[in-house]
Design goal:
The complex is a heterodimer of chains A (117) and B (109). By secondary structure, chain A is mainly beta. Chain A is built from no helices and eleven strands. In chain A, the strands form two sheets. In chain A, strands 2, 4, 5, 6, 9, 10 and 11 form a seven-stranded mixed beta sheet that branches. Chain A has a four-stranded antiparallel beta sheet with strand order 1-3-8-7, with no helix packed on it. Chain B has 109 residues and is mainly β. In chain B, 0% of the residues lie in helices and 50% in strands. Chain B contains no helices and nine strands. Chain B has a five-stranded mixed beta sheet with strand order 1-9-8-3-4, with no helix packed on it. A four-stranded antiparallel beta sheet of chain B has the order 2-7-6-5, with no helix packed on it. In chain B, a hairpin with a 4-residue loop joins strand 5 and strand 6. The chains are: A mainly beta (117), B mainly beta (109). The interface between A and B is medium-sized, with 25 and 21 residues.
């Protein structure tokens, strides 16, 4: 299957700093990528839908000025957590849908563990 | 978006067949049913996807009745390494994917 990578896999930062997480589709082009957040023992919560060349669509309750999403190319989307605080500590997962083959399968990255001190 | 309902948790023993049922009463005509597996601190892994009847691959089978209002993921002869959370999702072409609570499967020796 198609591969989605994330970088970094783990990051620890101080409160008030910004952190950028990269999501790449390695062997396919993805016009749409999704960003999720997952707290311990909970399900994945969709944060936003990232569309190549246009603004991201955020889910209700997700601050777009805090979670900046950029989808500059067909293989890369980035999520920047601005002015991070301890409550932003979570597991962030991206995914991409491979549609060129006519399928409907969504591939997920390995996740990024963010810890804000 | 079609909402899904699954059992919160299930227990099984090694070597047994495990069937996890998911209900999706308001599934739309162009929606597919997809199952994912997730281990702690990892991204979800695709297991199987189907539209109707039965789909089988090397790891699982997916049974979908004619009305498509439910589906059953069947894992043959589970092992300890199959302990994970299993998510049933209904995905309609190009639209966002919303996760339900999932089913925590615990396989015992």
């Amino acid at each position: 299957g198609a591969v989605v990578s994330q970088h970094p896999s783990r990051v620890i930062c101080k409160s008030g700093t910004s952190v950028k997480i990269e999501c790449r589709s390695l062997d396919f082009q993805a016009t749409t990528m999704f960003w999720y957040r997952q707290f311990p023992k909970q399900s994945l919560m969709l944060m936003a839908t990232s569309n190549e060349g246009s603004k991201a669509t955020y889910e209700q309750g997700v601050e777009k000025d805090k979670f900046l999403i950029n989808h500059a190319s067909l293989t890369l989307s980035t999520l920047t957590v601005t002015s991070a605080h301890p409550e932003d500590s979570s597991f962030y997962i991206c995914s991409a849908r491979e549609t060129t083959s006519g399928g409907n399968e969504q591939f997920f990255g390995p996740g990024t563990r963010l810890t804000v001190l | 978006l079609a909402k899904t309902t699954q059992p919160i948790s299930m227990d099984s023993y090694e070597g047994q067949e495990v069937n996890i049922t998911c209900s999706h009463n308001n599934i739309a005509t162009n929606d597919y049913i997809t199952w994912y597996q997730q281990f702690p601190s990892q991204g979800p892994r695709f297991i199987i996807q189907g539209y109707k009847t039965k789909v089988t691959n090397e790891v699982a089978s997916l049974f979908i009745p004619a009305d498509r209002k439910s589906s059953t993921l069947s894992l043959p002869r589970v092992s300890l390494s199959d302990t994970a959370v299993y998510y049933c999702l209904v995905v309609g072409g190009g639209f966002k994917t919303i996760f339900g609570a999932g089913t925590r499967l615990f396989v015992k020796a």
